[in-house]
Amino acid sequence: MRSLPSVTSGAATAVAVCTVLALTAPAARADDKPGNEGFSIKDPRITESSGLVASRAHPGVYWTHNDQDKGAFLYAVDSRTGKTVATITMTGVGTPRDIEAISIGPDGQLYVGDIGDNLGGKWSFVWVYKLPEPQQLKDQSIRAKQYVVKYSDGPRDAESLMVHPKTGRIYIADKKEDGEGSLYEGPPPAQLSTSGTNVFKRVADIDLWATDGAFSPNGKQLALRGYLGGVTYRWEGPGGKIKREGRLSVPLQRQGESLAFSPDGTRLMFGTEGQESDVEPRDVEGAGSPGGSSSDGSSADADGDGLFGGGYKGGALALAAVLLAFFGVKRLFRRR
């Protein structure tokens, strides 16, 4: 996974100002439901948490993994302590190339997306792994099924893999820096092949430089995030039909890589890479409702504005505005 471009010292200062503003914003509503609170990942082995999904078998536990790990490892992190309570070694899958995403299906299986391609077309195919979520949280090896995936219109970089919670169908959103991405739909679950090639077909436009995505538990909403913004879509399947609902107010993070719904669907959990990285919750009022809403609970339409909202282009414009404001204030003090 490529890191964000470096910024000048002035821009870094402006980002620091943004961070202060974010820290002084109202905190998310407290909630005693397992898996609804933010947490920090304490495991020193997890330095590039790139995917996140709430466990269905173990309340309060989230599954994550490293980006470009040196092994086929999954980590179960207890959100109440931030500690790893189980490490899973996937067997039968060879050496992963660039694991970027994790999801869970209605069958209780974990789906792992080895779908990254930093050169944007180096790999003629990528892989998806499937394995049962373990009933016991302990260090163990679990054999996974491996699916070869190709896209109908050629190779591409991707970091977002989502399994629909009702149909079990796999979807992948590619990562386009110009915000002109696409959503791809896999074959029906019964037609997935471990011996042949599984072709994912393009079914919709995605106007975001997407780093991760997730379906709401009821399957009526698709949320996608980038580094600086996010978008929600109303799910109007089958066939991957979506309608843009609004923008997500994404927290300012070091390198925002992961996104998951809380188990009850009332919150979106935003994760980032880095040592002892934080997972930050944002409320979702009426997730999956016909009207849609932003992650902080305020109403949002397809053209609404919000801090760091509106995808990659909107986030870039918001950041530019912050920089202009910062340097304007700086110039004013110089005059004084």
Q: What's the level 1 CATH class?
A: Mainly Beta
Order of helices and strands: HEEEEEEEEEEEEEEEEEEEEEH
**Helical content class:** 10-25%
The strand order across the widest sheet is 6-7-8-10-14-13-12-11
- What's the gyration radius in Å? 19 Å
CATH topology: Neuraminidase
- DSSP strand tally: 21
Shape: globular
Describe the structure.
By secondary structure, the protein is mainly beta. The protein has helices at residues 9-23, 311-335; strands spanning 39-40, 49-54, 61-66, 73-78, 84-91, 101-104, 109-114, 126-132, 140-143, 145-151, 158-163, 170-174, 181-185, 197-206, 212-215, 221-225, 230-235, 242-248, 256-261, 267-272, 278-283. The chain has a single domain, classed as Neuraminidase (6 Propeller). The chain contains two helices and 21 strands. The strands form four sheets. An eight-stranded mixed sheet has the order 6-7-8-10-14-13-12-11, with no helix packed on it. The chain has a five-stranded mixed sheet with strand order 2-3-4-5-9, with no helix packed on it. Strands 1-21-20-19 form a four-stranded antiparallel sheet, with no helix packed on it. Strand 19 and strand 20 form a beta hairpin. The longest helix has 25 residues, at 311-335. The radius of gyration is 19 Å and the shape is globular. It starts with 8 loop residues before the first helix and ends with a helix.
